[in-house]
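User: Sequence recovery, please. Input:
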């Protein structure tokens, strides 16, 4: 059963501490397996990809081919309904519009000493976008990963996706086509990450890998980090909803279940200041679960990791939210903006009674790839910035160098780096 905490309970602090420390993701030791897969791909290239894909996905790449043809990608548009294609297009346009407004400007100025200083933004050359496949397909994640990279100006964008019986969900390919992706490979798992990082005869390496995956994919991303960049290590999804008694209990119940149906390890937490309202929401969840197609998943998530927390006042909510540092924060209160300004740690914030978190998963515009497992304390959601790098520029002439040289020489000598000092001093003669 989900945990219910009340601030008036003398054991509240102890129970809250237990909730905060509870691990949701199963500890899966796959490091040895993943390490062997990566080394196999590094040394044996395409042959390893063929053997591993046949072993794990029961697909013969020698028959199907590594790469999905342009014709197959473009034909996918005709395989989805008009309604679905419209939905993908609306989502893509809104995602692109939001991310286009993120593009930073270069910086250039001359300081008081006459030194020219600047900062230049440039796009990465090549990125790999990992898309989960098989029994579950997420075309929305294709858009969320691919469109910011296009807006940033990345020249080469590659998708790898495991396929079910050699076939890729048409919605995934249609999303790839809408996002302008032309390079798609029917390869998944740790072997796909290794191929993107080190390259093979058929797949050229990339500079950064983004996108969620299972424990094998996550571990592989950790292991190749340093050879390539990565976005983050995604954990189970989560939502915290702050709601007062003015809300419809069924609305809030569905909002909590929307998160719970993602995965059995997902977490949905309700924070309120009214015990009776909390009970109404709990009761509504029990009723709504009965006809939910993914009820088995949602029910386990809610029972194992769900929680309701009843505070004395919603004024106490911000400090609690910051301890939880949730991926998604939904504020269904009278003055959500005021409350939001008191919160420091949240991946994305949804304001008001008519802004369910689910709208952010698809068509709001901001990215739905967000920090999980309390990493919102120090990280942010996927953005255009993940596909850009900064280069600083320094421009001294003789006079401006003379203005700052003595301090640099002094610091170099203090660090025992005499050649550094002489490199500067020789220009002052």
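Assistant: Recovered sequence (429 residues):
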């Amino acid at each position: 059963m989900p945990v219910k905490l009340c601030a008036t309970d003398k054991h509240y602090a102890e129970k809250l501490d237990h909730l905060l420390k509870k691990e949701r993701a199963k500890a899966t030791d796959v490091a040895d397996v993943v390490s062997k897969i990566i080394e196999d791909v590094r040394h044996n290239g395409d042959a390893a990809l063929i053997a591993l894909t046949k072993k794990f996905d029961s697909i013969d790449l020698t028959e199907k081919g590594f790469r999905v043809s342009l014709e197959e990608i473009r034909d996918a548009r005709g395989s989805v309904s008009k309604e679905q294609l419209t939905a993908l297009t609306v989502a893509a346009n809104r995602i692109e519009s939001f991310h286009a407004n993120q593009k930073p400007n270069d910086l250039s100025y001359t300081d008081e000493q006459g030194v020219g200083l600047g900062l230049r933004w440039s796009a990465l050359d090549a990125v790999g976008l990992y898309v989960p496949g098989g029994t579950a397909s997420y075309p929305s994640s294709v858009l969320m990963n691919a469109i910011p990279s296009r807006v940033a100006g990345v020249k080469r964008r590659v998708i790898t996706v495991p396929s079910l019986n050699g076939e890729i969900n048409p919605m995934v390919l249609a999303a790839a086509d809408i996002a302008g992706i032309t390079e798609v490979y029917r390869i998944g798992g740790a072997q796909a990450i290794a191929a993107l990082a080190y390259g093979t005869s058929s797949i050229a390496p990339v500079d950064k890998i983004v996108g969620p995956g299972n424990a094998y994919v996550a571990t592989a991303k950790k292991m190749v980090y340093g050879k390539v960049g990565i976005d983050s290590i995604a954990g189970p999804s989560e939502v915290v909803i702050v709601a007062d008694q003015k809300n419809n209990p069924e609305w809030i119940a569905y909002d909590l279940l929307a998160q719970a149906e993602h995965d059995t390890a997902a977490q949905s937490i309700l924070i309120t200041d009214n015990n009776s309202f909390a009970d109404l929401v709990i009761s509504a969840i029990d009723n709504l679960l009965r006809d939910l197609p993914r009820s088995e998943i949602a029910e386990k998530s809610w029972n194992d990791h769900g929680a309701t927390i009843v505070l004395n006042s919603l004024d106490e909510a911000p400090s609690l939210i910051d301890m939880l540092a949730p991926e998604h924060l939904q504020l269904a209160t009278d003055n959500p903006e005021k409350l939001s300004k008191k919160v420091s740690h949240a991946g994305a914030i949804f304001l008001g009674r008519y802004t369910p978190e689910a709208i952010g998963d698809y068509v709001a515009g901001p990215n739905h790839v967000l920090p999980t497992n309390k990493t919102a304390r120090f990280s942010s959601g996927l953005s255009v910035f993940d596909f850009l790098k900064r280069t600083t520029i320094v421009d001294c002439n003789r006079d401006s160098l003379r203005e700052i040289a003595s301090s640099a020489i002094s610091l170099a000598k203090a660090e025992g780096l005499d050649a550094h000092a002489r490199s500067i001093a020789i220009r002052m003669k």
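The longest strand covers residues 116-123.
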